[in-house]
Design goal:
The chain is mainly α and about 140 residues long. The chain is about 90% helix and about 0% strand.
Length: about 140
């Protein structure tokens, strides 16, 4: 997977869990109704309603736990993909910089020496910037 696909999965997960608070409210309302019925009527039907309510609550707890676990795994996968991308970018940059630094180019005159000095300063600046980026992560 790549960053875009993991990010898309995180967005899908957010959409899927967006209605969880509304379901929580409906379950709370249903629980209150079940309790009201149990107080009002003492028969087999109220016991059955209580069992159904408890079963729903148990399933809801399981769904919430699964959703939390999935979100954690997706968040971890995103962090891993971001790490891999940074690693790949840095490796590519290091390979490129190594090739530039190992150049055997020598100045034959003052103008060429000036150009080489400017290139050296640019490369040094790039290295310093990368070093600051690395120390932040």
């Amino acid at each position: 997977r790549d960053i875009a696909s993991v990010d898309a999965l995180l967005r899908q997960h957010a959409v899927a869990t967006r209605d969880f608070p509304a379901v929580d409210e409906k379950l709370a309302s249903l629980n209150q109704e079940t309790q009201r019925l149990q107080r009002a009527y003492r028969n087999n039907r109220t016991e059955e309603a209580k069992q159904v309510q408890e079963s729903l609550e148990k399933k809801w707890v399981e769904v919430n736990a699964i959703a939390q676990e999935r979100k954690g795994k997706l968040t971890d996968a995103l962090a891993h993909q971001q790490f891999l991308t940074r690693h790949h970018d840095l490796s590519s940059w290091l390979t490129e910089m190594e090739a530039l630094i190992q150049s055997d180019e020598v100045a034959d005159d003052v103008n060429m020496a000036d150009v080489l000095c400017k290139r050296h300063k640019e490369r040094k600046s790039q290295i310093d910037n990368r070093e600051m980026d690395l120390t932040r992560h």
